[in-house]
């Protein structure tokens, strides 16, 4: 073909492939098969290589991924991405609608204002804001904290459902003009089919499976490699607006969705618009019956006042718009048969009963196992092997045994017996009770194997140690650890053994499903983990009563492991000691009457001595010495020389003890904790008189109640966003 013919073919293929994208993602009426699309894309790629002079940054070939980006930058939203209030029953939705009518009707004496409502599915994905300037995608930004999010434009460019350029309109009906600035808010999500394919590939390569489609979507969108993002075929659905330069673009939400769909942006095909609220309730009921048949996850329906002018009049509360609410469907509950109970040993020796059930489809997956939490709950609910039990998914993710259908119990149902010896090593076990002085079996809270060399504990501790919130060693998950330990020739029984794996590189390459590239990436991750610091090591060792928060508090107070080990027991819990009477201090710890630093480690007079005893035990001493020998940094990254535990400087969070509770829409809980701690706060898990501030999201429960009872200051998410943005 001549150069002119090639150029013409390039332009034709680009147009054809963009039409195919629109037909597939927007119109739901594909004009070609996937195989044909891939063949045409390959042809276009070859032609563009031959003719670089006709390069186009928005060509469909650019949507298969380029070079990885170096990191994320932050972009402030032109308009905040606010959260939505929830309701869980039809009466709650009716009450919300009644408030909307009342607020918009004025005195309502003669001509109550007509209110039109719009309802559409609430897709369970990741919120994203697309900013188009003169029809060209400029930025794609995550919700972040509601005011500022991560720039993930590199990811949006390889999601075929998101157009790089909006279709040009001339203002004719069905062909709206494109505003100079148009921000489209929506949801990025993953189909269930694609989620199953990815997990199948991961399992085949010996890697850990992804937890659920929403987490998979978040992890994919936050990946720095566009090629990986492109390979996972994420989807997008518009559900709202941000900044808009042309106020005449659309007068209502339904008109807005119609307009952006005409410009090539996917929207929901399940929108219901009506001024008859019973029709809205019927739509909620109808969708609830068939939402499980869809190829993506949903957890509710979003209902809003349709008219933008009415929305503006209704305004906002402190944390969300008044004119919108989300109806959340109750979790599915089904019955099945309890076939058996397994007794699993965790990293701290805790033995947990795990139900083995007759498989049953529930909330989109087939469920066969569920935790029974502890033997006290088993006794309280009188659960027996052979019983018919009710199960549901907590948060539509984790299977949970609600209780027993007692009238269906058969004569051969067998009681569940708590093990008297460790099911893994045969060692002694000890039950635990909330009140040790009153060991009532009905209230047994835990049962532990007390053998520190128990093989099951070793395995679980290794898995925990490598986890993201601990040493964050990517690629060394459960299946890889099991594969290495099964090999036999590679020692992996102690934390330090992880950092010696580089000595066994060739043997690792020979393990099925690993290979040279994965091994080299794994060893690079292990090397990077050496510098994580004392807090991460302490959090990763699976020490009873030392979680992420307590580990950080100890690391703020002690400069390194040697200083921690040299400290007397009372220094691990100075606040607890301060609360004791002088006589009790002397009797218990042999202390002189010296005022200790006003610092909260998270340990108390009961837990402090337990942690102290473990830190000075022979196994712990060996572990620390071995970690030092392999080059692991046991100095603190969080150490504050004045032992105050607070960051230098002021600010609304400096020196405050904060508790997080409920669901926060704009934040990942771990990231928020780290952010607050970087601003000088201490984030703890329980409310006490020493708590300065409670941040309460949706569905806050007992922690909020206790805060109100104690008169502790409470912020909602909007107040938190305001304080963070002001700082």
Write the layout of secondary structure elements.
Elements: H1 3-25, H2 34-50, E1 74-76, E2 86-87, H3 90-104, E3 117-123, E4 126-133, E5 136-142, E6 148-150, H4 153-156, E7 181-189, H5 192-204, H6 213-221, H7 226-231, E8 235-244, H8 253-262, E9 272-274, H9 277-290, E10 298-305, H10 308-314, E11 324-328, E12 333-345, E13 351-362, E14 365-371, H11 375-381, E15 384-385, E16 388-394, E17 398-404, E18 414-415, E19 429-432, E20 446-449, H12 455-465, H13 478-487, H14 495-498, H15 505-509, H16 516-529, H17 534-540, H18 548-557, H19 561-566, H20 574-579, H21 582-589, H22 607-615, H23 618-629, E21 657-661, H24 669-678, E22 682-684, E23 693-696, H25 702-710, E24 713-715, H26 717-726
Parallel strand pairs: 2-11, 21-22, 21-23, 23-24
Antiparallel strand pairs: 1-6, 3-9, 3-10, 4-5, 4-7, 7-8, 10-11, 12-13, 12-16, 13-14, 15-18, 16-17, 19-20
Helix pairs in contact: 1-2, 17-18
Structural summary, described in words:
The protein is an alpha+beta fold and 727 residues long. It folds into 6 domains: 3-64, Helix Hairpins (Orthogonal Bundle), CATH 1.10.287.610; 86-328, DNA ligase/mRNA capping enzyme (D-amino Acid Aminotransferase, Chain A, domain 1, 2-Layer Sandwich), CATH 3.30.470.30; 333-448, Nucleic acid-binding proteins (OB fold (Dihydrolipoamide Acetyltransferase, E2P), Beta Barrel); 455-529, DNA polymerase, domain 1, CATH 1.10.150.20; 534-629, 5' to 3' exonuclease, C-terminal subdomain (DNA polymerase, domain 1), CATH 1.10.150.20; 657-726, 3-Layer(aba) Sandwich (Rossmann fold), CATH 3.40.50.10190. 35% of the residues lie in helices and 19% in strands. A 5-stranded mixed beta sheet has the order 2-11-10-3-9. Helix 25 links the parallel strand 23 (693-696) and strand 24 (713-715). The termini are far apart.
